[in-house]
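Hi support team,

I'm opening this ticket because the web form for multi-chain structure prediction keeps timing out on my end. I have pasted the exact lines I submitted so you can reproduce it. The total is 653 residues across two entries, so I didn't expect it to be a heavy job. Is there a limit I'm missing, or should I split the entries? Thanks in advance, R.K.
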Amino acid sequence: MARDGQFQGRWWPILLSLPQLLLIFLFFYWPVVIGLKWSFFLERPFGGSAEFVGLANFQRLFQDTEFYAAAGRSLVFMLTASAATVLFSFVLAVAADRKLRLSGFARNVLFWPQALAGASAGVVLSYLFNPATGVFSWLNTLSPGLWNPVLDGFDANILLNIAYMWGRIPIDFAILLAGLQAIPESYHQAAAVDGAGPWRRLLDLQLPLLTPQIFLCIVIEFNESFNQAFKLIESMTHGGPGNSTNQLVYKIFVDGFRGYDLSGSSTQSLILMLLFIFIVVAQFALLERRVNYAR
Amino acid sequence: MSTHEHAAASAISLKGVSKSYGSSEVIRDLSLDFAAGAFTVVLGPSGCGKSTLLRMIAGLESLGSGSVSIGGTPVEKLPPKDRGVAMVFQNYALYPHMTVLQNIGYGLKLKGVPRPERETMVRETAASLGLADLLARKPAELSGGQRQRVAIGRAIVRKPRVLLFDEPLSNLDAQLRTDMRLEISRLHRAIGATSVFVTHDQVEAMTLADRIVVMNQGRIEQSGTPEEIYHNPQTTFVAKFIGSPPMNLLEANVSNGVVCLGEASLLEAPCPNGSITLGVQPTALRLGSGSHTGAVSGIERLGREVVYHLETEHGRISAVAPEAKAGWNPGDAIRFDINTESLALFDPSGQRIAFPPT
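Hello R.K., no limit was hit. The queue was backed up. Here is the completed structure from your submission:
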């Protein structure tokens, strides 16, 4: 080791990062490569010789209306769930930052759902929102069938959004609250002397200074809601009722592991990945320009 | 000392003001009037409550008890924006996401001043502060001195009745601080608002103030013109705080109406017998001959004058001598005399003993 505490030699860094590289390669890049290959072959579900079919898998997919519908549902869920999560987290963070009564206690309570696995949250929430016995069952006494996520696709999607928000608010809340607390008290005081009341300061001071954290939250929520809704769908709605919650991530799983259409499933994964890369690039191109990094 | 009466200035009056944080009392039953249009410097060490006092005038800090009025109107229940005050903060507190133009104009915008008029006012203010070319910049692209000017611009553009300064120069280097002192002095004369300036730097206090209020532990130690504070400190605390180097405080004895420093009798004073504190200005020592001796322990050459730090049997004494008397070196023993005309006497509790000037 050199005196300045840095390792010398070309092989040390590679050797030390090898375990991590190996894992990423084995469980991320290699499946991507296999998936890419499978998209151009017809794979047999129980192994055996695959047959090269060119673009036939893509052709089949692009004629499948359920594929477009599932992709659309993924995009809509991404937008609604992300927007609602970031918005609610922002409201909660602003309230906690205002040092209202019990805000210290609320800060802790609000973070606890973060410790719960998504699938468990799904199970708990589907009981909680059960049409016959759950917290919204009284709606059905007003008008039968007003709240029934088991039969009504719209209600099922609301349930999915609520479950998603419930699990994701803690991390966004923590990020946004940290951002708000990093705004020096003297800015608030200067603005107060300048004539800005609390709401005006929220709009003119806190919101612009919080744009880096808001942007970060939107980026991670887009990713999470688009790619990770699987555990909630699997534990709560199984894509139903009537495919109304059958998002692309869930369809890929069902097609591949229930329908044994490995090639079709791989092709959809590939398209999902490309779609998401496009979303991330668009986010940075469109949103990041409005982010204020100066503090 | 003339006080600039000005239509736009308001007198500030604090009556019986107290403030505690938990069990620690920061301001203790303090009453103080700030004359309209005057420049008052509140001077004190950190933690003496001077910033809290300023924040209570601004409305950023609630009062424990007592009342504050500005221009005769009680304001203790009003939010900062309705008090007609503007404030310059120690760390500038410029809005980082706004340009200089937006920073200075933000208060006007909130007041509903239409954009063209607002821009004219901001440009005028910026020009008077030498910021005309920087209006499109953000605070991060400015130097410390420029940021301070923007902060001052933001405060004065609204033509406030009261201008509050919370140690605004302490983050600047020495040269800039001198420049900004002169600048603030000039602006005060031009604007005429009632100014309250909080600092721990006695040089700022001496150079800027019409009146200095010295604070210690939440109380007013002394209030008066810079000359009064310098020449006639009323407590040992003020004596130790003012002047560079400050007044020498020596333990002396009184017996039968005669003040003695060690063996030497200095002067006659109508005091009860016992120990007292003798205040000697560093300029009141005649070096070179006399009945006292001290060893030179340190020398500060300041150009026109030299400060000698002497170790004597009465403690450490600082003496200021003109440059012509700069012949001594560290370790030398010097004989000196004390000019008894400008001595101050303090009782054991630190209060000045009234003593007829000779």
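A quick check on our side: Chain A touches chain B at residues 184, 186-187, 189-197, 200, 204-205, 208-209, 292, 294-295 (CB under 8 Å). Let us know if the file doesn't open in your viewer.
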